[in-house]
Amino acid sequence: MAILEVQNVSKSFAALKAVDDVTFSIEAGDVLGLLGPNGAGKTTTIRMIMNIIVPDKGSVTLLQNSGENITNLIGYLPEERGIYRKMKLVDVLLFLARLKEMSPSKAKEQIDYWLERLDLMSWKRKKIEELSKGMQQKLQFIATILHKPKLLILDEPFLGLDPINTNTIKEIILELKNQGTTIIFSTHQMESAEKLCNKIILINKGKVILSGKMGEVKESFGKRNIHLEYEGKDDFLSKSRMIKKFDNFGNYVEIQLAEDIAPQEFLQEIISQIQIKKFEIKEPSLNDIFIDSVNSQAEEVDHE
Amino acid sequence: MNRKIWAVVSREYTTRARTKGYIIGTLMFPVILVFLFGGIFIFGKVFQPSTQYFEVVDQSGRIYSQMVEMLPDTLKNGKLKFSFKELKPAPEKFEAVLEKLRSKVRNKEIDGFIIIPENILETRQAKYSARNISNFEDMEKIEWAISKSCSNIRLENLGYSPEIIRREMYAGYISLISFQVTEKGEVSKSGVSNFLLTYLLTYLLMLFIMIYGQTVTGSVIEEKSQRITETIISSIKPTELMIGKLIGVCFLGITQLVVIGSFVYLVSTYGAPFLLRMGVETPKLLEIIGNLQFTPVIFIFFILYFFMGYLLYASLFAAVGAMVNTTDEGQQFLTPIIFLNIIGFFIMITVAKNPDTTAAFWASLFPFFTPSVMFARIAVSHPSLPSGAIISIFTMIISIYLIIKLVAKIYRVGILMYGKKPSLKEALKWLKYN
After folding, report:
1. Residue A71 to residue B228, Cβ atoms within 8 A
2. Is B434 part of the contact surface with chain A (CB cutoff 8 Å)?
3. Max Cα-Cα span within chain B
4. End-to-end alpha-carbon separation of chain B, Å?
5. What is the pLDDT of residue A210?
6. In the prediction, which pLDDT does B175 show?
7. Closest chain B residue to the Cα of A77, Cα to Cα
8. Which of A40, A58, A281, B201 could bond A8 through an S-S bridge, CB–CB 3.0 to 4.6 Å?
9. Where are the alpha helices (DSSP H) in B172-283?
10. Do A86 and B15 touch (CB under 8 A)?
11. Which helix (H) or strand (E) holds B227?
12. What value does the mean pLDDT take over residues B403-422?
């Protein structure tokens, strides 16, 4: 059963079309990466899911027939996140837990567990304003997952975190994923998305330009990327009709084959022209797919 | 009410109630009262009137005993107000005694002396010598006693027996009982105390509505400027958040008002008797306090009108908070609201004197004036209720309901709107959003 269905959702701010006819859905247990460059419409999409912004067109169906107050089933980490500066850390967490209708005893137990785990125990009774930025980020994250949400929506969860803390948070997200939590997170950090997601949606300028299961997306891009180490003249690169584009480093070149060309055919073509030292069929990284897709959309727009 | 709203209520209340400012503010009023009370106590102790000692030379030989009999006045602490001692010097020693009396006054052994001449019935003059001759009240008393004694002697001389004179004299005493003529008829109470109390309480009421209204604005702006709103909104509906905030801050005000009200009640009920028991004469101020009619009924209306008035004004204050990004930006919108409140206060001052006019009736039913004007009418008309008092409760409830409904829409849009402050026109457009 779909946990979330977003259907033909659009939203404009004055002349700007922030989100344009976006459709996707996720099932229980999915980890969806909402990817896209800055200003692509990620946060606006998430805000519409959270019913903070009302879409101009289209509909959002969230956790239907769950019976409970659905806000209690969701953990939401907004991009714009602040916290009461004058309150003590433990009081803030207790307050946010009460807002999720957690029982006080359960909340206290969970707070202690997570503060211990994220190295914040000694700050428990300190005021928020005494905490560093990174600590506040961790605190925000704890507040989001304290009530064991079914659906976790994280808008740029790694923003402002150092590599060590990024790793810790990543581990916890992975752990929650393994426990069956459905997760949506937006980021432009492709490496994190690559490790965590099983589904991705790539948005640019408000439009979905790519979506699907991680494996399938990669496959559709894969098999056509070849890393080649060679000796000999490099004019075969410009002559070959099988190459869509290449990036030549002298004795090493990264090649993207034209569509419908199998690596096998290409190998046959070049084997007589150069001395091949290494021929590798490479799966594209999400980063490659990201840059590629965004650029090709930009080209399309230019051609229009 | 649901648990989420209560979570907001308790956060708003506890985080603020724990601050030093709030605790000091709450205790300040009682402390001021205690100081005032202590001051009066010490003042009363130090400047307490004491028995005045007089020595009397009654050359006529007939006045002294009657005069003393007519001045049995005692102080509030039970001691005699005047203490007299008769001297009977031989005529040739009179001058020497006089000289001795003067030096006794100078040395403060006695407060003064009185010489009653032998032929007082003809001269109709007696001599009063004292350090302090500006104490008119006491002098008039002594003058009255001597005069009365002279009249009695004259009547005796005409043949009336002393018994008859005494009986008739007492039978002729009257005292004045004062009544205040008001539109409600004649009332035997201290008007000064009542107006004082009405102004004081109404002033407190309006002050608190403004203070806590602005606390709400501050609270909304804090969540907005610190970017806290979005986190909270994922757990609770904006309207619920607003209601929780309004109620939480309201409890802060009620706590303070209950503390202050209880103190006023204690002082007005037990203040004067307490000082008396401690052996202090009640000065005028305490008499006024003693006459304050701060009954439980007024107390209940006091809290009720704070609650309703606060909700009405604070909803507007919440809307202002939602529309702006900083307190400075808010001032522009707050000023007209504060003005509305002040107008109500001025109307109240007039209405308190004439609570039963048609104008007073209608003014007190205008929701934004009800807390001040209607409360003042109730306080001065006490113990009877003025016309419209009960209706006002219903008009307030309806107004609060409508205002909150309207404001909730502005609030919902405003709290997530960052950037440029909207004009009033734009904010009114938010009302149309769903």
Report:
1. no
2. yes
3. 111
4. 24
5. 84
6. 65
7. B231
8. A58
9. 191-225, 229-233, 238-277
10. yes
11. none
12. 83
Asked if B377 contacts B358 with a C-beta cutoff of 8 angstroms, the reply is: no
Look at residue B189 and give its three-state secondary structure: coil
Choose from B230, B237, B412 for mutation: most chain A CBs within 10 A: B230
Q: What is the pLDDT of residue B34?
A: 72
- B351 vs B375: CA distance, rounded Å: 10
Per-residue pLDDT reduced to its tens digit, B314-368: 999 999 999 888 888 888 888 899 999 889 988 888 888 778 888 888 988 999 9
Query: Which range among A74-83, B220-229, B259-268, B295-304 shows the weakest confidence by mean pLDDT?
Result: B259-268
Size of chain A, expressed as the number of residues it contains: 304
Chain A contact present for B432, CB below 8 A: no
Q: Is B1 on the interface with A (CB under 8 A)?
A: no
Q: What ipTM was assigned to the predicted interfaces of this complex?
A: 0.81
Neighboring chain B residues of A81 at a CB cutoff of 8 Å: 227, 230-231
> How far does A116 lie from chain B, in Å, by closest CA?
23
- Both tokens of B99, joined, read 């000289």
Residue to test with chain B: of A99, A137, A140, most B Cβ within 10 A:
A99
Task: Please state whether beta strands A275-282 and A16-27 pair in parallel, antiparallel, or not at all (unpaired).
Answer: unpaired
Element (H, E) at B347: helix B327-353
Angle among Cα A245, A39, A22 to the nearest 5 degrees reads: 85
CA B190 to chain centre: 12
B357 touches chain A (CB under 8 A): no
Burial code (b: 16+ CB inside 10 Å, e: under 16) for B219-240 equals bbbbbbebebbbbbbbbbbbbb
The three-state secondary structure class of B85 is strand
Which residues on chain B are in Cβ contact (under 8 Å) with A101?
Answer: 3-4
CA distance A145 to A171: 13
Burial class, B19, CB count within 10 angstroms (exposed 0-12 / middle 13-18 / buried 19+): exposed
Test the B interface: residue of A79, A83, A84 with most B CBs within 10 Å = A84
Q: Across the interface, do A76 and B231 touch by the CB < 8 Å criterion?
A: yes
Answer whether residue A223 shows pLDDT above 90: no
* Residue B383 preceded by cis peptide, ω within 30: yes
Q: How far is B217 from B251, CA to CA, in rounded Å?
A: 16
Instruction: Give chain B positions within 8 Å (CB) of A83.
Output: 226, 228, 231
Q: What is the pLDDT of residues A99-152, one digit of tens each?
A: 999 999 999 999 999 999 999 999 999 999 999 888 998 999 999 999 999 999
Which of A52, A54, A96 faces B233 most closely, judged by CB atoms? A52
Amino acid letter, B394: F
B6: distance to nearest CA of chain A, Å?
9
d(CA B412, CA B233) in angstroms, rounded, equals 10
The pTM score is 0.73
Nearest CB neighbour to A71, from listed B222, B234, B434: B234
Residue B46: pLDDT band (50, 70, 90) is low
pLDDT tens figures, A76-87:
999 888 889 889
